[in-house]
Amino acid sequence: MSIRQFFREGVDFIHQIYLNRRLIYELTKRDFKTKYIKNLFGLSWAIMEPLAMILILYIVFTVIYSQPKDSEYPLVVFMLCGLVAYDYFNKTINQATRSIQSFSFLIRQVNFRIAVLPLIMILSELIIHFIVLLIVIAILLINHVAPSFYWLQIFYFIFAASVLLLGISWFTASVLLFFPDIYMIISIVMRVLFFMTPIFWNAAKVSPKYLLILKINPIFYLAEGYRMCFLYHKPFWSDLTGTLIFWGITLFFFLLGVFVFKRLRPQFADVI
Hints:
The protein is an all-alpha fold.
């Protein structure tokens, strides 16, 4: 695909999002409600689930484990900033990978662009992510972390994560229809990336020669980015190397996702 074709595809995709904005909104709302409405407590699970996770971490690392003397930030706050970044990415990639399969009834709709289906899952998970962020912000304030203008950078990092997720999910959602085992592969990869992401450990204490290797993990950039917003109070461009690596990886997966989706799209109806 040439640069001109890629640009044309991108403009057309944005145009299709605008044309189908009402349907995307309704499908996002439907997907969000479907995840919780069948449960006894309904939509309240959207708050209860992340709140339970945060509460457990808060108890474990403020009551059971004592705060290290050389720690600049409260341990629970430090970990939460990294954990919510990973949690958003992990849950969204799992949901978005099943997006085409979940909305299979739209495959034969000639006036609907199937490429927006992963976007619906991303938007649905984004609602929950914002709820989690509000809880995290409350914990930050309780722990005397002062608000800062840098907090607004969170929207940049959410956008960056969502663009990467869209590119990856075009690839994984397409391949899943022909190779269901990819879902298990994603699960294994995400477990590996969990330990390669600075959630329970501090990236500042890692040797520079290993740090560059760890930055190949895009969630590393996001976890540290969330801390730049809420704790470090640094602009996102202060880590220029990490930024270039992240957007290079994002561009790769975006192009790969577009290529694979376009090649497999004509066969979706045959395998659904």
